[in-house]
Fold Sugar transporter.
Amino acid sequence: MAPGVAFLLWVCTVLAAGPTRSDPLMPPSVSPLEAAFSARAGEPLRQFGYDLFAPARDSAAADASAPGAVQGDYVLNTGDAVTVTLRGQKSFSKRFVVDRNGQLVVDDLRPVTAAGLPLDSLRRELAAAVAATWPNTESFATLAEVRRIGVVVTGAVRRPGRQEVSAFATALDALSAAGGVERNGSLRAIRLMRAGGSIAVDLYALQVGGDAGNADRPLRDGDRLFVPPLGATVGIAGPVKRPGIYELPPGGGQLSAAELRDLAGGALRPGRARLLRLGIGPSGEEAAEEIADADARRFGDGDLLLIAPLREDRRDEVRLEGHVLRPGPRALPQAATLAGLLSRSDLRPAPYLPFAALETDEAATGSRVLHPVDLASVLKGRDRRRLAGGDILYVLGANDIDFLTAEPVLALLRGERQPPQDACPGLVTLARNLAADPDGPLATGPQARAAAGLTGARTPCPPLFTTVPDLLPLALRHSVLRLTGVSRPGFYPVVDAGTAANGGAREAIVEPEAPQYELIGHVRRPGTRRLTAETTLRAALADGKALKRDVYPLLGIVERYDRRSLTRAYLPFSPQEVAAGRADRRLADGDRIHLFAAEDVRGLVKPSDAGSAARSTEPADGEAADEPPILAALLDPAIVALIGERTVQVRGAVRDPGGYPVADRTPLSALIAVAGGLSADADPAAAELTEVTGSRRIVDLGRDGTHMAGPGDALRINPRPQALESRAVAIDGAVRRPGRYDIGRSETLSSLIARAGGLLEDAYPAGAVLTRESERRREKEQFQRQARELERTLALEVEKGEPVKAENVALARQLAAQLRGAEPLGRVVVEADPAVLRTRPELDPLLEPDDRIVIPKRPLTVAVAGEVLHPTAAQFVSGKSAEDYLNEAGGPTRDADTGRSFLVLPDGRARTLALSSWNHRVEAIPPGSILVVPRDPRPFDGLDVAKTFGNILSQLAITAASVSVIAR
């Protein structure tokens, strides 16, 4: 394609995309400078550097963001906002702005002069003012919002004028706020004017070398940025890493080819290159000049450098392509022959071995020619012809061979000379060969005559015939038509087939073989057999003697072909029934009998929880797709689908539950036998058969053996009711025989205590602890739900802009983390005194698997936990009050909420306490109790869920108390 045509196509593509300069997110259109250089270079060239501003930055969103961590040397000025937080005698957290007088006025404090003051100095001034007003009060100051400054941006920018930017903004930020530099503006001569002087800003230094330089200089209020017109430019085209149009540095003079190549990122490949300078003369003419010295400074305004490697050929390389695992180049010294180029480990599954193609250079004509290759001979080491550099070996697969008998190919062989509009290059090449030689052997020979009586499938063109179009006619010229002895009747290329080129066209390309059938799969002697008029399926299987021992007994498939239409039919049969003489069928010429191993069938059909007979091929969400079974990769997909469609699901009390395909309606006894038989806990009198129609009935397998199941049905063998639970319970502590005990379905706590030998003399049944896994999970989920609700409410408070204190937010997040990390025991309040349970059996709890019961010894202490100065276990004294125990623990802390104090009784129940001076009610506190003083929820008063914080804190305290009890 001519360079000018390539450029015009590129321009049309860009313009067809429809970008407009009003939308900064769209790519820019082609500038006049880019159009001029691209037309001269014959390839698209873009101006370098302007993508720095595309897509345009949303300056409003960027300026609205928080300033982040600000250093203490930041100098404050009018407009800065400061968050002042006080803690102690006076507590608040508010936002204040430095006013026009430069002062920061905080509530109830003397004004502090902040303008011109570093942030650290302001903190010291503020601390002194707070200490003078409120003793024992700490002060904190953080920068909440940075002031805005105004700069003027003029020249070649998209939105010139005054720009409001952050005090942290740089020259690059101001240019971005102005929409970026236009493509007719300079990136190398931008001027920053301040206080009567100017500073040069070069954006090339930032993009080429990473040196921000003056582009990263902070701006001041009143600064001006001017972007002058674009300066001198040069173009670089060819195999470089960053071809484009580059602006020359102002006043820098001309550049050398080496400097321009470095500016473009360097060459794509090492080695010598041809350097061509295209310069514009005084009269406007363009002259070409070869540059011998890359360091000579010859390139100025308007010049174009074209770089081309002296050589782009490749030496000592051969290639392996097609139906191989790792296609691509190979080194000629290590693959000097065909046998050295290819081994069986290189091939993908199902390669076609009788025919391959070797592409070489024809010495006489200098063109590329395809030669047929017997791949089997190559693999056996018999074909050791030497290779030359540039040779390519193409390996064909089953899909490539199937396409030789596809309907588009047959249509061309029948006489149609125009391929379909969407035809691949291989079909186009075949059509041209037939049209160029209408009386040739391919157009009038055996292939064409055979195509007149065939009907092919409409399969897509394989990629190999798209990459190598000449391979399709070559394969057809060397093909023979096989109707028997192959999996798919059709054209099969072989190396020794006669062609018109060698004068040996074979008229017997349609093979008139004797009728035959084929045994495939799990049989003792697979292969082709002669078919007689008396041959039946039972005779082919030799009354079952031809089958291997572990053959799958319920399904085999007879694959039958219609030679006229090349369509296949699949006839299922039961090998078990055929071998027993209860079923049989006559065979036809070309029948292929498929038998399968039981293990392979189980790998194909996975258990289906939904009860569907069809095997699912899609992985569930979040699961990785299983690797397909080896048998699925070897079998025809239609056979795999048929096996899945004829599956009966067998579930329940069998040794190997899952899906089992059947030929037709099959006795349930046969299904249970292939499923490994009934398991020990099976109940044969209560089998459940669900038919594909939806009807369901209970079947007694022992009484009636006539019940049958067909494809799509489901059979469930129900287990007998179990007298024992699957898992045991544990009892520890003050019992005579502690340990793990198997329990029945209705086992109670009193019976377990009796089995454990009863209680010891020092047992304390009032403090018994029963922990249950289901209750633990429920409490864990409750904590997780409360943590999520707490975090969601906190986020809503922040989104609404409510004045939430920062320390409250931190405390709330800490509480959510505690809720997520809490590990409850799952304690259940129970009565464990055998004497009480005998008189009141309704209090005797039923046990569940994995329950744990701990009967403690009689305690002599009362524990005090929570917000106390010294959590302890105080000695129990009858009549001692809660205040007495609390005083022994040092009393409540500053964060305690004594009004919510409660007592955890030895059996796990909780009871509120009144620890106030005006309440003189006497609370009886038994030994083994835990007095809990929870934390005060008042720090969370600023949140909508403050009323629930007390309950959350109490639950955490109860959890901690329960852990301490079980740990004794």
The two ends are 89 Å apart (CA to CA). The mean pLDDT is 81.
